[in-house]
User: Fold these one by one.
Assistant:
Number 1:
Amino acid sequence: MPSPAGRAVVPTARCRRAAAAILAGVVVAGFAVALGALAGAAAETSKVLILYSNGRLLPANVEGDRGLHEVVHAPAGRELRLFYEFLDAPSFEGPSFEAVVTAYLGEKYRARPPHVVVAVNEPALDFLLRHRDALFPRVPVVHAGVDRTSLRAREPLPADVVGVPVDYSFAPTIGLALRWHPGARRLVFVTGASALDREFEARLRVEAAAVAVRTPVEFLVGLPMPEVVERLTAAGGDTVVFTPGMYRDGAAREFTPAQSVAIMAAASAAPVYSPYSTHVGTGVVGGYAPSFEAMGRQAGQIVNELLVGADPASLRLLEVMPATLNVDWRQARRWGINDRSIPRDAVVRFKPPTLFEAHRNEVIVGAAVIVLQAGLIGWLLVEHRRRRFAEAAEQARRAELAHASRLAVAGELTASIAHEINQPLGAILSNADAADLILESAGNRRDELREILADIRRDDLRASEVIRRLRLLLARHEVERRAFDLNEAVREIGSVLGAEARRRRTQLEIRPAPGPLAVVGDRIEVQQVVMNLVLNAMDAVTGLPEDRRAVAVSVETVAGGVDVAVRDHGHGIAHEHQPKLFDAFFTTKRGGMGLGLSIARTLAEAHGGRVWAESGSGAGATFHLELPLAGTTGGRSGGRQ
Amino acid sequence: MNETPLIHVVDDDEPLRTSLLRLLKAAGYEARGYGSSGEFLLEPPADRPGCVLLDLRMPGPSGLELQAALRRRGVALPVIFLTGHGDVASSVRAMQAGAVDFLTKPVKRETLFAALRRALERDAQDRSTREEANRLRDRFAALTPREREVVDAIAGGKLNKQVGHDLGMAERTVKLHRARAMEKLGVGSAAELGRLAERLRLLSEP
């Protein structure tokens, strides 16, 4: 059975389809209108003629063209057409050639005159200045790549001839070369034989005058290329070569400047500098020059403004194209130029990408993984250290507490300890006094004196023995873990607490097990546990009739270990106190801290053992210390050093 | 009777006891040692001057218990306590019970000898007092019971008449008894008789 919702779906889908059809119709209609408009505008084209001085494949031309192309565009609603013409200087020159070109261009562009003409470099600009009125009357001209100084020689220009001049000055490049080669003793300039080459030479001679003061300058002008190569091959290590390149050598062989530079750089035994960015890669170190691409872009922007009808005279233009330093990293390397001496704003080319640049993502991921791993390892190490510190601190705290507790016991035993020590000391003093008096008296009583000295010696040893035993209570010792005889340790407690038992008129009975019982752990701490239990038991029988004032300590082997039982005949343990018996600060004694049993339990557990209490009604209490026997250690192991 | 003082040293610690005996003998005293309170009580001291050097803490009866036992038995020897570790409570009890001194081991020779001198002086004093009392007691012992009653009444400050009334006898009989008593005791006056009776009473007080 269809649900109401299912029925409702149908009309909705229909509505949607209808809406889509309407929308499609609107879009199609819109396209048609737009296409019609475009078709109508096709008649209106903005035509731009770009006139190059040199050949089409001159690298500078190619770069400049790229920049221009990037920027130039027709005004809204118009189509852009670009026309290119090449004067092919310096291959073709002279009045007759000019006449032919003028006739050709006049004929060619009569029907479709350009709206703007771009003149690239001086020959093209000169050609236009001479023939514009005949060829392209009142068509604005944009010049590009024209040197500032040579432009100044052509002033005043007509108002509709505009452009940003270029500073082709060679001085910055020459200065750079001398800075990078402070040991240079000879500066060699190489120029060619064509008219353009002569212009290079002229500029170079002017600029060289400034540096010649410091470094001797040698010009290789208009030589045939083989001779240039020969001279450069023989150049010494103290030479620096500068060349703007040449269009034609002394043997009338033609080059693009870049080609000529490549030949020279390949042959030269000295570093070669050339200002143009297009020469970087041919073997030169580098130099300062404005980028041809930037010139192209600059010209393109001016063209755009003129195409929308801007008045050429009112344009606000840069005074000069800024120069940039272009460096071939491989050459800089070759000539021992430090990376750090290359200015940061230099365009450094042919520098092999660093690992990071070449494999950015992989490097980032790899670095991230390493950092994460290092972090994880570091964190684990820190945790490990922290845990070890915590364990050491915990152990130190327990040892500290155990020691404090032993000192407290020592305080409790002060009376009996003092008695035990003062007894031999008293005997020693009286013996010494007696000897004194005997010496004062007349008569030979040497035997008597000898007897006295023997007694003094014996009493001295007796006193020191008491003190030795006391070290068990007083000394702060390094907790150690080694096997010892539990019987022996318990017996020693008997001698430490014997005097105290006598003082309290309590009978203390020690019943060791037959044969030695090896237990592993800290002997003093184990003794402390037993001692705490014995003192507790003695406290429990205080105030009872003398025949009930007895405490018995027995050592017995039990399944899986050994049991030290401390039995008294006191009142036993009140039922309600049993659960709290081993808690810290729980006590039923006046003046008691309530730490003895809690410490006893802590120490017993640290030895893999336990303490517990049994209490019969009115028949006294028995406290047990159970420890694993050496070799059967079932509790914690190895945790203590 | 031997009049040289004898010093009794009671200490369970044999080396200490030996050293004390040695010192005392070297100083010219006569001394005897006992290993426990019991041992001392088994050998009642002969009636001769001396004192007891007593260890406070011993197995079995302690020094304080021995001191009490000696008093009960009428042994009047002065007691000096020696202890390895004195506590206030036991020293107070010892002094209250009449100890001459309470010394702590190890004890200096001068301190010990000074205490011994005091103890022996006191013993000598006690001894002479006891002898005087004994002599008086002997003289009084010669009186008949009736004479003694009359002397006691007169020593109490009563007149003959009153005494006769109290004792149920005639005043004349009282005077007779009195005269006979004065003759036996060797006194010349009733006042002298009164003083003598008072002296005996004082000496006989514990």
Number 2:
Amino acid sequence: MSIPLCVAGLLLHEAGSLSQYTIGRTGVQYIPSCRSAGSRTRSTCSQSRRTAAILRSELSWLVDSSIAFLRALGNMCYTETMTFREFLSKMNPAEECRKYSTVLWQCPQFLFLVMGGLIIVSVMFSFFLGNRYIDNPQITLLLILALTGVLLSMAFIITRSFEQLAEANRLKTEFINIVSHQLRSPLTNLKWGLDFLMGEGAARNQQETGYFHILNENIGRMHELVNDLLTVSRVEQGTFPFQEKEFELQDVIDQVLLEFQSASQASNVDVKIEGKRVPKLYNDPSLVRHVLGNLIDNAIRYAWKDSEATSQGKRERNQLVIRLSDQGSSVRVELQDNGVGIPQEDQKYIFQKFFRSSNAVRRQTEGSGLGLFIVKSLLEKVGGQIGFKSEENKGSTFWFTLPYGTK
Amino acid sequence: MKKILFIEDEAAIHKTFSDALSKEDYEITSALDGEIGLRLAKEKKPDLILLDLVLPKMNGFEVLSALKADEATKAIPVIVLTNLEQMEDIQKAIDLGARTYLVKANYDLAEVVDMVKKAIEEA
């Protein structure tokens, strides 16, 4: 999204500067011809000079505001590191438009190419004409007006296409919200009905019990997915209920580890905590629980299974080390595992919504691909950060920071 | 015999719930919408009311405030049992006088049954 905007800003800026240069030249060259003109033409001449002056100031406004626009976009344009190849692939309208599944003329990438082309052509055309009809400021004026018209209508088209995209995005979030709410009621009915059937005192044979367990597990998965979808839509709509209070990070870690105790034992993962006690945090403890739970869950899911052999032959036991460190205004939590790691080609996508690593699919690990996306969005909302380094077959280290916060 | 009034528009939940509590010595009355629920609360004077918030005709918040406004039903403890979990809804229900607020999806049947038993013993 930011790339087309940055490109638009740059184009606008270029167009403005070029026109400014043109009108500048016209004005400058016009001055001596005014002096040498006869008394009859002198008044028309000075009139034209005034017009040129107005135009100049208008254009410098355009250039200034495009610079301001670019500056405002600055963060977005320059912090987003992107290789040239990625930039080119973004500029490939056919592919990108297919991704958005919009009509060609509504697709932003296509619009930007057309617009860019049109702006370049119209600016060159006016520059050429401006040079040629240098003696006639009225024509320059007309040209500038025409150019402004083209730019304005282009701006209108872009705004509209972005509006449509933004609206589609909003509708999607709303849709997810409604659907997940509606899904919850029948899911609860199913879950409670099954709870009752599986409850104490009911005599069943082994086969039935097996099926009941399958049902229960699948209802649990659906329930988790619906909860994740709801969280996503809340984070995106900005209605996620953050509840800040003072708490000890260590306590939350202990709670989460207790929750995952049976899972980590079942997968043979040794968990240990390193690092000293850090000061109390003032933040949302349930958010921290969510983040930690998710990362620990991943570490357990992607631990080596006993049946899996490695190329080195015998391998070490599965380990998960949680390290805490004080970083002045924030705390840094690191979770290092020696699990299967993330394939290099998947690494840049892992925080994307619904992305699932190829080894997740291979290992038949269940999940929606929402976990890390939610974790990242939540952390960013409270001023935290998250990152990782990972090597396939060696393990991953995820870290996140969380500001201590003030009451 | 202690009386429970369950105001909830999903018949499936009514059935599961009364089956789960059938071993206990409770009289369970079901109401499928807010209006009937409010009327039954006044007629039966239950010892405990379980209340959903999304209900036809009269929503749970309206039922709750009507219950708390009436001297006859004011003292009956109300457990809100719903799938709404926005902070505003929870706060609103508590402010209106709900004793407990339970998000259905977050609990097992057994947990809810336990909570209901506990609440009714205290009532």
Number 3:
Amino acid sequence: MKNKTIKVDYLARVEGEGALYIKIKNNKVSDVKLKIIEPPRFFEAFLRGRMYTEAPDITARICGICPVAYQMSTVHAIEQAFGVTVEGQLRELRRLLYCGEWIESHVLHIYMLHAPDFLGYPDAMHMAQDYPDVVKRGLQMKKAGNAIVALLGGREVHPINVRVGGFYKAPSKQELGQLAEKLKWGRDAALETVLWTAQLPFPDFEQDYEFVALRHPTEYPFNEGRLISNKGLDIAIQDYENHFIEEHVAHSNALHSMLKERGAYFVGPLARYNLNFDKLSPLAQEAAKNVGLDSICKNPFRSIIVRSIEVLYAFDEALRIVEGYELPEQPAVRFQPQAGIGSACTEAPRGILYHRYKLSGEGLIMDAKIVPPTSQNQKTIENDLLNYVEQAILLPEDQLTWQCEQAIRNYDPCISCATHFLTLHIERE
Amino acid sequence: MVRNHKPKLAVWKFASCDGCQLSLLDCEDELLTLVDEIEIANFAEASRVILKGPYDLSLVEGSITTPHDEERIHRVRRASKHLVTIGACATSGGIQALRNFKDVNEFISLVYASPKYIETLNKSTPISDHVYVDFELHGCPINKLQLVEVISAFLHGRKPNTPSHSVCIECKLRGTTCVMVAQGTPCLGPVTHAGCGAICPSYARGCYGCFGPKETPNTVALSARWSKLGAKEDEIMRTFRGFNAYAEAFRKESEAHEK
């Protein structure tokens, strides 16, 4: 069969609503569309006129999977506008909260969304019939990540404790100490996860990507750093909009975020890992080496191993923070709102999340811009599909369709996030 | 009751953040037991398996914001024996219902480069504006334990036990000192539906109403109290215009304070 169309009307095991459309003519791919059918919600528009204090609660609602990322980018951007710096234990608590989100989001993806593809199951519930202990381990690890978010944030989804300047309430040393046992178990379970994911069957597929991630002088990046790439990008966050644009591509109905000079780029665990391997904890570096993962990985299917390494790092880092914690004097630093523009990028589980706000002197939001990771990866996902389908084109159709879905899930796309700013056009055939 | 088949559960998504359906996957201790009792017949966020209806129980997340979804919800209803909405979007229109107070075309051109491609309705509306809803579970997000309770109740043909009193009662049950009385912190607890467990006051901040209005809320009296604590009119307006802005009691109160 030389001509065929691969259509997946509703992509499963991704967050949000997306569809896939690939057209093949004479064994060549003639069209690839990753369609976004998620309805738009207009966050940037209704943030206008809201008080800065409300912003972290509102932006959290862009994504139920990674609300902490939205809250972190929001508070850092507003703090930049107000000239506020959050340091010491409050800064550590923010890192801890982010560890919790990385763990719950990554583990959800590794065990429940991605692994079933490698082993040929439609979902984790079916996988649990043959691998009960593996799925149970995943669920308990996810629970440990959620326990961090719930303790620091009040609840797992849309935490309530984050504010500009810090937190509403800082946990006591004793409260935080109660996490330690779970985290130690989680760290061991993460080591097993690295070994388990490393033995999954991987297609041979490497591409020459431009990886973009934060880079901090002393730590694996969560909240701060410069934005760098493996192809020469090295900028302060405040220069973001001079280097990145959103482009309307003719074959697609979505706006793609691109590097002005070089086009498509890649954000997320693989990018962070490749650009910051030296900043992982010794334990995480060693685990990577033990399973034969180099400090550079260009196969997106192997992102499941890299996610496991990041989960291991997050447990390790969380334990370091919990063990060194002292109750700060105040749960938040004091400041006065001032007129200005502030921007920030933090590392959401799926990659860099850029926010910019313009604020009035009393702290009202005049203008907001948000660029989520999935819209940044969109162009790269489509390129992968194009290149991957060409090399797998002789597979039976159902298998090829499944592998295309898997290639999309390599990116853990969060379409709910991407959509509030993507151009939407439903094409009915 | 003798069943000859496992009850079929479907999860449907409309305009939303996915957080409420994620709550089902966040039931780490209950999930595998749950799938022993029910068949997950349609849950795209978790599975490639899509079984045909009819479904014994449909959980609906998200609000209606596009012409396409306006039709789709009727198909979901027809395929469902019981339909339960989960979360503020499905139950009151969600945060995206803030468009209902503005001109949506202005919103579109603010956010999108090619406004002509956007197919959207003027308003974001709750599911109950379109089809009959058997039960509404409040929250932004929902409480996952309440979700398990609701699923369990429908599977056993009983009414869910989810109290409709205010967050104040939950503070008392939890033993939290009232932030409004003791610290003078404005709080929406007295008019907000219970279910979260009164989280915010236990973290030293006022409730911001993410579970929507309780039964018979006295929003006027609460606004007067807020004014005495120093809240300005526009602050009171914004406070009621949050994640449940389009729920009737909150909508009316925010409109009363709009200049």
